[in-house]
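Incident log entry.

Two folding requests arrived from the same account within the same minute. Monitoring flagged them as a possible duplicate submission, but the sequences differ. Recording both here for audit purposes.

Request one:
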Amino acid sequence: MAETAEIDQLVARAKAGGGIEPLVALLTAGSEKTKENAARALKSLAYGNADNKVRIAKAGAIEPLVALVHTGSDEAKDYAKVALSNLAFQNEAIEKDIVTSRQPRQENAACALKYLAYGDADNKVRIAKAAKAGAIEPLVALLTAGSEKDKENAACALKYLAYGDADNKVRIAKAGAIEPLVALVHTGSDEAKGYAKVALSNLAFQNEAIEKDIEAAKARSSKAKPAEQALTVPSVPSAPSASSVALPSGKGARVAMFSARFDGGQVEKTFREVHRILRENRYDVMMVEADSGENFGDMTTAYLGRLQREKGIMLSVCTEHYGEKTASAYSSFKELKFALDYEADITVVPLRVEDIYPPRPGGGPKHQHDPAYLAQSYVVSVFKPSLVFEDCRGKPAAEIAAVIAKRLRKETVSTASPSGSGCQAAR
């Protein structure tokens, strides 16, 4: 068994120009722990290093990494997924090798695309090129013919590919994805249902033709399964139900982004549901995906950049410690600083979710990351007494979504001050 120390030695040799083959061999020949360590090492070697990517691919790592995503331990699966994503990033040849790896091709493509597509617009454009050669059609086929896990992966991949990409939406619809996605909302696993709902919402967003096709598919599905009519498919707009909430259309409202401390708790779960409701009703609201892994930073950076370019709204979920400075380079602290740096462009709308307001992030000489109380200074600078907050305490997701929707429609770009006061919302 190759222990961590041995893996570290192999990594050091690889960084020094030595062979990567020994690490690749451990993906198949080692123990479960060894496979985890080898995948972790390859993930790190592939990150941001074009030469290493080529060396890893030439050493034959793609096939065992794809296999590990299917068969490895939870740790190994996670490392393999990120390794594949790192390998494919800005390398079309490797991306193609991953998507077209050995049989079962469809299953591999679904799993690989799921982790290559999310959070990176350039990656989605490159993967769309592969779609012309038949990458999307196998995903659609898996929605009906694959295993439960295959259906989940395929729906998730299509969800990401459809997000914000008009050409991909058309390709996915033409490939016949709408009917099986609608069906999956009724019959799939909980994971598959969630992915299918968001995939349909993304497909319909700002595409009236696809929206109509989804409505028609819903109607056909309801006639075929009258007992399941309560399971509505998210479309834009849709009637109120257990899974869908009707709001005034968000078409023309300002772009927005949720800024929050992501800890997997109830507040995060509530606001992910709020995000889903807003997206269903055509509100262009961004929120970093819960499963974005190492792409979290790229997604956050891209969303902040768009917020600044389009003079958008930062929806600050104000828990007690919102804005605290942490070890992460991409945190609510950084987002708050960004809003302050670009206060002429970004409007901050505080969402009060706790009795303590404004937030009181930790700081001081004993604080590991913020001995100078920077976070508290940013909070004071942004959350001024004149800044109007929305009181979300104790409210369900649907009610919060309605409140936010009203603000996004009201807060048109023309109402923002031309300079110096972008962090203040209109009363």
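Request two (distinct sequence, not a duplicate):
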Amino acid sequence: SSGSIDIPHVQIHDHFIRIPEEEEMKSIKAFPTADQFKRLACITSDNPGVKMKAKAYLSYYEKFSYGNQSLLDSVKNYLDAADDHETELKIHYLYLKEDFEALAKIGNERPPSEWYNDPWSYYRIGEAFNKEANYEKALIYLTLALENKSEELDFLNKQAVVLIKLMKLEEAKAVLYRIINLQPKYASAYANLGYINIENAEFDRAEYNLERAIKLEPDYKLARWNLIKLMSLKGEKLKARKYLDSYLNLFPEDAEAITLKNSI
């Protein structure tokens, strides 16, 4: 039978990039235990300065111990002790702390030229504006990040997400196709293309792109959820139920999906 199923709207994949690129870690050897970490800041110097210590703590936190507030507290202490307060380290610290309001304030108060050669600072400021729903400003900073790191897939995907939020769908599609050109197995690009296809009522194309994303990442929760919504929009209730059953097999504790199953 057919008919519309009342479930939440489709969503774009707007993920938080936490772990840095490999080259950002190259000068800091990361250790898997806290005891080994105590030596981390001393690898490149017998007497590391406060900035080097702050950078070491940030890298370890990001790579191995996300959520450990004591490490971020140590970073703050080192930054406060630094004679020359380094903007890039502060931006990294605030980003990992997820203090997007403070990051956006830096973006509003300081001209981009002050960290013109650091694409990650551009990205982090851009993400702060994205979180604060200032999408025009976010786009400016993400574009600057890509000037220095033009093939960084996560930067490109975030730029596409912001373009979608600005309803610049054709521009977003061009960015997503560029990602696929660079890396055909980048699942988020297909998922976000599927979102655009749904917005444009290109339902068959949406189904293709969402299924492609799921084939690349079988546990891709958002892509599977959007596929259920797509079947609802197409009026294909049986397929919606089939995809919902598959979803619940992977995510049996999802309260929203359980509620939906009980209603159809």
